[in-house]
Structures are given as C-alpha cells and as structure tokens.
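Quick entry, no commentary yet.
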Amino acid sequence: MAPGVRITGSRVLDEEVELDSDFQPAPIPRLLGVPLLVRRLVPTHSAAEEVEMLNKAVAASKAVEVEEVSPWLMADPNTGMPPVEWQDPWQPGGALGPLTEVLVAREDQLPFTAEDWAVLDDYICSATELATAAYHRGKLPPPQKFTPEAFRVFVQREMSVALENRKAPIAFLDLVPELELRFPKGAKVKPRGLSRQELNGVVGVVTRYETEKGRVGIQFPEPFGLLSLKARSLEPEETYAEWNRNVCSKYGFMDGGT
C-alpha cells in the first residue's frame, strides 16, 4: 500500500492505494522528478448508458455539468494534450461520457497527498498551456519548464508563502526539506490528525527544527509546553476554509466553499 489520493472531479481525498499492473505512469510528473502512477477506476455507467444520458440532456436542452479529472495526468509533454479518452467528454474530440475518478500514488511509495496534488496541479496546468500554445505554433515547449529543478524552485516559492495564504506548507517535503522555509520561527500553527486528540487544534508558536526527522518544535501553552511534531501534521493558525467561513458568517454571505 502507498499513501496516495483519490480524485473525483475537483475533490481530492487522501487514501491508501494498492498499486497493481493497472496503474500507468504519468508522463509530465515523471519529467519533474515525481514518479506518479495513475489508475482510472471502472465507470459506474456503461457506454450505452452514457450515450443515452447525453441524448436526453441534448433533447431537453439542458446544460450538463461534468466534473472531470485533471486531464494533464496523462498529457503529452510535447503537445500539452492528453489522449482522447482523457479529454473533456463534452467538447469536440473528447471521449463520450464523464471521465471516471482516478487513484494516484508514487511508484517509489513515498507519500503523495492532497497538498502535493494542489501544488503539482497548479504547476502543470500552467506548463501544459505553454506546451499547447507552442505546439499550435509548430514549436516544442520550453524544455526548462519540464525539469526537476524548475519544479523544485516552484515548490520552494509556493511553500515560502503557504502560511500567509492560509495553507498547510507541507507539499513535497522530499523535494524541499528545508523546514525553516515552510515554518518560519515565530509563525503560529496548530496540529491536526494527532492520536493525542486533545492537542489537535491548539495553536502554538514555531521555535526550532529537526529537519533530518521532518519535525518542527512548537511551543504550546501549558499544560503542553514545547513539543516536536511531524511537519505533515501542522497547518496554519487559521486555514483558508476556516477564514472563509468566518468571513461569510460575519458579513452574512453564503459560504463559497473551500
């Protein structure tokens, strides 16, 4: 089993993934030094049922919303285009029927989390746009975009401002292990998912690092005191989802989601 994610439309959930021969290598992530394997899950509808659903929708003149798995997972780095079966099914050239959900994990079985996915998704979406534009001009994409070093620099930049943006700065700890970049001293954070449940959600202050162990020293109020916690268990004092809910509640807005 490898720590990976299940992706359904825009929803990404951490999940233990059992790797088997049905998984395929994802081309662009591998160029970036991230050996991802992807498996499309069996669709819940047959091809005939998908055709019937489409015909009914067209006949009723209704807009059909389809959540799609990010197609760049299997995109060609030279064109930025995925195989037909991975393209938007409701656009010309796309495969018929909604794209199914997928499981994603690393071949080296290092953890691949929802936070990793968010950073990788941002980077590759922009890189594939460049590749597609170059392809339509009859040129190859900028080769420097698809290198481990380019991606590492991007991760460094994203993680250095993650806490400011109310995000957990824990993506790709293997590529950018510098904890002081992610958790500046004096920053306020709180743990999540600890077996010591009374500590979850308690805000503390970053004071030191154990980089080789992937741990951050946090000074908590009494009775907890100074504790060394895994970086993966830490998040901002106020996450974006919490901030969004608080703002919506304060001003009477409808919660716009996370």
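second:
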Amino acid sequence: MEDKELLAEFVVESQEHLADVENQLLTLESQGDQVDVELVNTVFRAVHSIKGAAGFLGLEVLGGVAHLEEEVLNRLRNLEMRPTSNVVETLLKATDCLKSLLDDVETSNEQDVEEHLLALQAVLDGSEPSSPKDDAQEDDGNSEPVQQSSAAEETIREFLIESFDNVEQLERDLLALEETPSSSELLNGAFRSIHSIKGAAGYLGFGKLERLTHAMENILSDVREGVLDLRPELQGAFFQCIDKLRQMLTAIESDGSDASSDADSLSEAIVKLHEMLLPAKPKSASRTKAADAAQDVDTAAALPSSNNST
C-alpha cells in the first residue's frame, strides 16, 4: 500500500513539474541566441526531480528518458548548445514521452522508448541526418548516395504521416475551440500541431509549407498570450489554411515538392490579417465606429477566395 501511495504521489508531483515545460521550451526556441539561462534552469530542475524520484522508485525507463533530456538541458544552460528547432522539438517529444509514461506508470518499465533515447542522444552527439536535398545533390549513381536517398525518402514518409496526423488534430482542436474558445489546453494543442509541421518543413526544405505554418503559428502564439482573441475571421482563415495544408502535403506525397503550390499568396494574406487584427497603439481616446467597420471590410478582403485554385 505504501509503495502505491508513493507512486501516486510521484505521478502527481511529476505532472505538476511538467505542466509548464512545453511553453517554457517554446519560449526558449523563440529566444534564439539570447538564451534565458534561468528559464533553462527551471526546466532542468523539473526534469532532474523526475529523474531522481524515478530512480528511487525503480522506474528505469522513465528515468532513462529523463536522464538524457536532463543532459540536453544541461548543455543548453551551459550555453554549449543553442535551442534550435530540432533541439526543442526533440525535447518536446521527450517530454510528451514522460507524460505518457506517467499516465500508465505501473507498466512504464515495459514501454519501448528507444526512439526518444536515440533522438536525444543524437542531439547530444551533435549528429543530425543530412537533409533530403543534400542527399539528392550527392546522388551520382554510386551505392552510398542511393542508400542516402532511400533514407531521405523514409524521412519524408514519416514526415507526411506525422503532418497529416497533426493537421487532423489541429482541425479537431479548432472545432472544439469554437465551443470553448478560452481553453488553454486546446490552444496549446493547436499551437503544437502547427509548430511541429513548421519545424519539420523547414528542416526538409519545404519553404512554402514552412512559410504558411509560420504565419499561422505567429497568430496562435498571440492568441495563447492573450494579445488576440480567436475571432470568427481567424477561425475561418485557419480552416482555409487547413485545406491548403492538406493540398500541399498531398503534393509532396505525389511529387516530393511543394513548389507547385500557390500557398505563398495565402501566407501573405494571413500575415496581413494578423497585422490588421493586432491591437493598435492608441493614437486617440477611442476609435470611431466607422474605423471599426472599415477594418471589418479590410479583414474580409485580406483572404483570397476559398474558390481559388490550389
């Protein structure tokens, strides 16, 4: 009975430790080279506490993931590593893994977490797979480049599977937000879906896909921070973007490129919409109704027609 109580307390405390880690990691990524060491220390302490308690309780698998995540965070706080998109995405996935293990902690030692361990170790080793574009450029017909090309194709297949799943999850979260627009959990989920697609698209060289998801991510970031409300026009714009994302992923699936997409016009429209909806710095005591009405007209005109070709 005592062991079960200790385990239950560990789960509750660990979930509390991890509650803010996602937002903290995303904040670190946005800082680029200007790393907030104290913020890294906050995340480090959370993961370190989980690792120590997991070791005491004999939770070897959970402790192993926490240990490698802690090592990456240690490099970050010592400024030996930058919080790049790849580093942060790896940490986010490791954190999700910890949460999953905590959800079923009694069987956690039976779970296969090799994927996360290898990804964390790759970050520590500073080794990342070459990009598919690099592989294609090196392909001169010899056996080694052919193997690299095959690996690149597998990377893209995995990217497509994850991205289609993320688009589906994004759509579900946005539909749910229509009913509960103040749900931080749904907003965070939508943000993570877009962030994951953006990071992978940038790494794989899908520039148009990266630009569109980046524009969407910027808006969701402001919504999460309370700078913007998730207004109906934003909801409509995001559903239009979701349709475009599906079209682009399908194009990548068929010909390996997003070059044929006209998504840049939508990306520009989303950026313009974002700028128009941002609260203006007050120039006078209040805005006139005419000015508000004019902005509503401009907002509707900012987005291209949903009947446009793909």
